[in-house]
């Protein structure tokens, strides 16, 4: 038997279908005996895994790992399994081992790390464990050889979603994952592509999943969504693609196909691409149920955008603020503030730019984060890697200071002055109070009104210092911020 483990990553109200392990399950379906254990719905995943190991001959424990809480939860369970059932091989896959393969293998309880797309690598790893091929022949695999040395095989070329079977949704209690959200009462998730063709220097996605983005066909996307609607009564969906819109022709066909499903949905896109879309395509997107689009605006400084290799301009962001307002779609603009090149200037210009966006489209949702670099295989942005000594094991990444770094709670960036950091944090508090996110479906109307009233004078007069009353009010109301949805 193969065990696929999805460690706990979110609170129950935020859990969604574990697409990563479902993708692996899809290639095992009808060819291998397997079980999925999800820590987001199982209160005792360690006990469940141990029970399965004792009941069956388990050949491999595969663990899907993202940095942050999921990594910490996976580390604790795997460490116990290695101690109590040392004969079971353990492989980590997903974003964490793709970006940090050496740190992953430094853990004594991890035998293999899968970098990038894992479906074919998993099947070939099973063959190697059965003596049917060598570990050296498996692309995308990092492992420890017989002497304990780390071996990193060549990268595996990415395949598009159409190359693999559908997710076997029937292997999970889907009703436990279709949770209420701003978009609907039964919100599903879907990933219609893999990879990213862009090269933003602060992001590790292209390092993990390649420099091309491969989409599934519009027919398949429609079919999967229709299945979720008709079989499980899904009424909304969040698309997890890095760039849901690239080709305008693809977008138009997909919109025409999914419009009859009457779904409300959220996705991510780029301002440079969508700013070139026709008005007809924008209206087709809205008719298809698009409610909100996340844009990585990143900075209000064109020089900083060039430093990031983002490939967009501030003018394109302003264009999309206007066009989304005209189309009746809520834009969600994310900023990573405090560029290492000149954090004070970047902060000053970006905060002013955010105010400009709000004048153009007051409904714009604003997400503010400190510039947090990702250590990448190969090169890093500028000389950041000389200023930060990144952890060398999962245990170190689980320490509070690095967990705060991962979650952007406190990056402790050495290039950032304390007063600049406080300005960013205080501005975020004021903006979040002046315009409480519409995605917080639990916040009472009176609470929103209170926050808006308390923060109005601060925003008007640009007085962001020590907003203690807003901090207390947010805690009292339990206001959720979009970037903290999973916590």
UniProtKB/TrEMBL annotation:
The B12-binding domain covers: 4-136
Q: Which Pfam families match?
A: B12-binding, Radical_SAM
Q: Name one GO molecular function term.
A: 4 iron, 4 sulfur cluster binding
InterPro entries recorded for this chain? BchE-like, Cobalamin-bd, Cobalamin-bd_sf, Elp3/MiaA/NifB-like_rSAM, Methyltransferase_Class_B, rSAM, rSAM_horseshoe, rSAM_sf
Q: Which residues form a coiled coil?
A: none
Residue span(s) of domain Radical SAM core: 182-412
Q: In which domain of life is the source organism classified?
A: Bacteria
Q: Which UniProt keywords apply?
A: Iron, Iron-sulfur, Metal-binding, Methyltransferase, S-adenosyl-L-methionine, Transferase
Task: List required co-factors.
Answer: [4Fe-4S] cluster
Concerning SUPFAM superfamilies, the annotation shows:
Cobalamin (vitamin B12)-binding domain, Radical SAM enzymes
PANTHER family from the UniProt entry: ANAEROBIC MAGNESIUM-PROTOPORPHYRIN IX MONOMETHYL ESTER CYCLASE-RELATED (PTHR43409), BLL1977 PROTEIN (PTHR43409:SF7)
Name of this chain's protein: B12-binding domain-containing radical SAM protein
Q: Which organism is it from?
A: Terriglobus albidus
Q: Where is the organism placed in the taxonomic lineage, from the top?
A: Bacteria, Pseudomonadati, Acidobacteriota, Terriglobia, Terriglobales
